[in-house]
Amino acid sequence: MRSRLRQSPSPASDSMRQVMFGIHHNALAYAMTTLGAGMMNSIFSFYYVKLFLNKYKISEGAFHQSQVVYMIWNAVNDPLFGYIQDNSRVPCFSKRRLSILYGAPFYALTFLLAWFPWRSYEAGDWLSGVHLIVTLCAFDGMLTFVLLAQCALFAEISTHHENRLTLIKYNQVASLIGSSSVLFCGLVSENMDNFANFQSFAVVVALLACTCMLYTGFQSTSPYDCLASKATNKAGQRDGAALSLSSVFCMTKQILTQKDFVLFVSMNFFQVFLLAFCNNFTMIFAEHLIPQNVLPSFVKSIMYGAGFICPQLLVLSSQNLLRTLGYYRVILFTFYVEAGAAAVMFLLGPQHYYILALFLTGNMVLIQASFSLFNLPLADIIDADLFKHKRSTPLSSMVFGTNALFTKPAQSLAPMLVVGILNQVGYEKLEDIATVSDQGSLQELHDVMFYLVCLVPVCVAALQILAWTPYSIRESHTVDAKYIET
């Protein structure tokens, strides 16, 4: 797909021209959902594992069962919602902004499920396992419904690389602000030690996030919404046959036979695994590997916040690189840096506490920053599918959903594998680091944690380099673009 291809005049070319006072209003509306989702997702992914393991005292068996159920639901709901949003005649499904508008309140409510226990849990309480299953499935279901619509907007607002970089820029500013919720949450709740403050902060975040996403629902525009409305008004044009199983399999097969899509999904699976590994366990690793007298609690709060805030600053400062080198080379370079930094940390050893703190933060930053660019290759894959199969409208949600079908299970595999490994060396029985009498067992646990911190990024980055190197859509950033809007 490197050759210059010309497509028919697209209405998408006008949707990024709404500029007033230097502000792209459609880009702003698009980014407001990122702001709301960023506030909630950052807190959820960073705290939920520690909450259920340390405060609710969920058993390892119940934790693994919850992750298996979540893994299945997580994989199934993305292509399901993607197909519905691309093919339904119901406006709240077919129109991207309406999906966000109606989904936002439920998304905010499901975010609050985790932080309010259903009763006072005892260690190994079966109800805490049910609580985790309901929380993960409900939250991910609404996250998928809302963010699939937003991802589709990214691909449909414009096919120009420059316009997509504008969306990325607005998106990263919004994500920068939204991700700061982890920093403020840590300071307000003393890293969740003050649980009442944590719960109050979560309620405030849910209200603010819902308001932001409602703005997107009211203000965002996509020219394909207009096309979908016209198609819907034609009697019998998209009846039950459009939603047949044969059409589902046909379109999914067309997506899966794209070589670049398969390569991207393979690479993305490992990225999702590594991202879940960092988000879920960085706090746990830091508390064990870096003594309190070296880095006090408030400094660690700033460190955790930086891990969520700095990725957006890095992406914003890389706009020129993305224009000149393109996302393919930038993403590939980050894999080499991740592997190299982890190898150096392993050689230095765990006794260099400040370097370890810098590595934990930097690793989170680099992994999240590169992940923030992944909408660019997916948008190019959607463009290629649109041209290859001569579709009237792009299968944006289906492509994003099919990608999620294969990558989302990594979100469950990471905590399952790590918790299983840690419990083999006594983590489940550990109540408080300061009161441990068997220092030999504690040292063994810390050694295993350090090996995980260093070796997981090295191995994952090596696999990503192998998967990403053959990817062929590398020149969409050039002036001689694949698609020309008129």
Report on the structure:
By secondary structure, the chain is mainly α. Helix content is 74%, strand content 1%. The chain is built from 18 helices and two strands. The chain has a two-stranded antiparallel sheet with strand order 1-2. Helix 1 (25-55) packs parallel to helix 6, helix 2 (60-87) packs parallel to helix 5 and helix 10 (259-289) crosses helix 16.
Which features characterize this protein?
single chain; 486 residues; mainly alpha; 18 helices; 1% strand; disordered N terminus; disordered C terminus
- From the spread of the alpha carbons, the general shape counts as globular
Span between N and C termini?
20 Å
Structure class:
mainly alpha
Q: Round the Cα radius of gyration to an integer and report it.
A: 23 Å
Number of strands: 2
Query: How is the main sheet built?
Result: 2 strands, antiparallel
- Biggest sheet, strands in spatial order? 1-2
Assembly type of the chains comes to: single chain
Poorly predicted regions: 1-14, 234-242, 479-486
Mean pLDDT: 83
Overall helicity? over 70%
**SSE order, as H and E?**
EEHHHHHHHHHHHHHHHHHH
**Count of discrete alpha- or pi-helical segments spanning 4 or more residues:** 18
Beta-strand percent range = under 5%
